[in-house]
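Write out the 3D structure for:
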Amino acid sequence: MDILKEQLKVNILVGEAEKELKLMSLIELPYYLLPIGKIIRAYAESKIQKAMVENGKVRINGVVTVHIYYSAQNRHDEVFHYEKNLPFEDLLDLPGVSKGDLVKGTSEVINFKAKITDEGEKLSVEVTLKNKVRAVKTTVLEVITDVPDNLLPEKTLIKVDAVIGTGEKEKSYQSRVKIPKDKPDIDGVLNITGEFRAKSARALAGKVVVEGEIEAKVTYHHEDPEYTVRFTIPVFEFIEVPLAEEGMIGEVNGEILEIKAGKLGNREFRIEAKLKLLAQALMEKQLRIVTKLTGAEYTTKKLIAERVVGENTAQTTAQKEWKLDGEVKILHIHQEKAVVKTSRLTDGESEIQGEAMLGVMYLPEGSEEIRHLDINVPFKLTVSIPGAKPGQNLYTWPKVEYANVKVIEHCTLQAEVVVRVRAKVTETVSQDVVTEVGEVAGMPPETMEYVIKPGDTFYKIAKKIGVPVEEIIKLNPGKDPQKLMPGDVILLPVSPGPPLG
C-alpha cells in the first residue's frame, strides 16, 4: 500500500493559562522624605522578568512598580514622588509544558488601591494582577499527504510556518550614560532592572538579524533622596541560523540574563547587560494533507500552530486641548502608557484606535494646593501588513515615545503625544491530521473506474464481478443506488471474476 508522508517542523501551541494574583504591602517612606499629607496621584505597573518551567507548571518572577505623587503635610505647593518596587512570584498550571519550550508571559495591573497610614509615614497598597503565560513547542511531525483511493481519503489544504533553522547567541553590552540635567548628582546606585524589546527581525543567508533595545531603569540616591532614570541601549545583532535564506520569516526572542550599573563620576553610569537571543528562520509551507480515512485503522494528531502573516510598525502624533477655569502653572507631567481600545483588520492593513494616558500636576493661580488632571489623548493610525485579512489574529504593542503638556491662551492646556505601535498578524492553523495508517479492514487494495450503462444497478454489478454489494456502496458514499444515471462514473473493487462488458 503506497502511503506518502511529509515531515514538518513547526511551532505547536502547547497551551495558555492566566491567573489573578493579589498583593498587599505596607510601604514605609524613607526617613528623608516628608510625611504624606495628600495623595495627588498613585498608580502601579507590572512586568514579568523571568518564566521557568516546572513539572507541568510555569513559575514567573516579576516586579510591581508603585508610583506615589503626593504633597507633604503643611506643604501643599510642592510635588513629591516616591517609587517602590515590589517583587512577586506566581505559579500557573499549564499541562503539557516542558523544559525547552518557548514560554512568554505578560502581567497587567487590573486594580490598585493606596491608603495613607501611620500619620503619613506609611502607605498601605493593594494590587491585583492578571498574569498570563503562553507556551509553544518546536515539534517534528510526520503527516500523511496521500494514500490509495480505495481508502477514500478526505484531504484539506493547510498553510503553516515550517521551522527551517534555529540559533542562539549570548552577548554582553556596556554603555556609558549621563543622567538628565534636571536630576541631582549621583551618590550611589541602589537598583537596576532591564527589559529587552525586539523592533524587527529578518532572515538573511545563514543568519537572522535583529534590531531592538534594552530599556534599563536605574534607581540611585543623592544624599538621602532616591531618584529613578531610564536609558535605552540599542541592540543590532546577527545570529547564526543554519539553512536560513533571505525572504524567510525571522523570529527573535530575548532574555536579559544579568544587568548591573556602576557610578562613573557624579553625572554618569556604566551599565553592563548580558543578553540571550533565540532566533528562528521560518518559511511558509503549503500542502494538502489527509484528515480522514475509510476502511483502515489510522492515528491522528491535532495540529495547532500560528502562521505569521506579517508585522510592521507605524507612529502618529496626536493632540488634545483641555479648558480650565483659570490660569495655572504646570509642575509635573508623567506619562503612564498607551493602550489600544479597538483594532480591526482589513485587506492588507490594521486600523488601530487607542489612548495615551497622561497625568498633569498643576498649581492654579492664587492657590497653594496642587491639583492633578488625567488627560487621555485619543490616537488612531493604520499599520500596513501585506496579506492581512479580516478574521486573522492581530497583536499590538503600543508605546508613548514622547509626551508634553503646555499652557496656551492663559487657561487652556494642550497635550501632544507621539505614539508608536508595532502590529503583528497571524493565522491559526487548527486541524486533525493523519500521522499513521494501520491495518486495512476488509477493503480490497485496488479499485477501478466503471461507467454506468442503462439498466445497471449496484446489485447487478456486484453479481457480475462476484463481490458483496456492500463493498460497492462503501466505495461510492456519494452515489444514491436508486438514482444511477447512464454515464455516471463509480469505483469498483478489482476482482478476479469475469470482466464487465
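The radius of gyration is 32 Å.
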